[in-house]
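thought: fold this chain, then report.
action: predict
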Amino acid sequence: MRTSKYQSIFQHIRDKILNGDIPANTYLPSESELQQQFNASRDTIRKALDLLLQNGYIQKEKGKGSLVLDTDKISFPISGVMSFKELKETMHEDVITHVHKFVKYPVTPRMKKELGMDEGDVYEVVRIREIDGKKVIIDTDYLNAQVIPGLTKEHAANSLYEYIEGTLGLKVSFAKKEIVVVPASEEEKELLDMYEYDLLVCVKSYTYLEDATLFQYTESKHRPDKFRFVDFARRTV
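observation:
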């Protein structure tokens, strides 16, 4: 897939920030200067800057420009609907996915509630995300097997959304999310490199298709010292 110009500009600036070529607590060049530097339109530059903002690399300050933020923690966007494979493309770190569990079974009373199902089968997919040699995320996905048929462990190792949209031709549209802090279970402590930590930040997501069909419930648990959760919101009043 061809990378658009604004994504290339985003990646170029992001890499310079991560490499320390653009230090934290300094300002990026103005939009006009960036237009000249990258031979790009103002709209393209603004799209690239919005991506940097959404992913926690900059903060826009009125009258001053784009302030570069400290990037010691990995920025994890909570707005939008993005697969981990897509998110990985915005990250500078080395990332590996381990499929810990892949099973299909009749829907349980709990999943009837979470997925709004009366009957049928559910896929349970547990994946460990290893970033720069440290296992720091457990993603547990439950998917309605009637809505998402034919799922395999290979799809889980690659990208669920790539299979859902590319192979099944369905359109993933929107998600409702909730963030809570939960104690790590003994199993989770064994699966992740927890060190002295005993709490995890859990992002619960209910994800829907374009026709508003709920097809996925996810619990994504993160080691708290490795991530900052970023959002992009615009006041409309």
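thought: worth noting. The chain has a mean pLDDT of 88.
final: tokens above.
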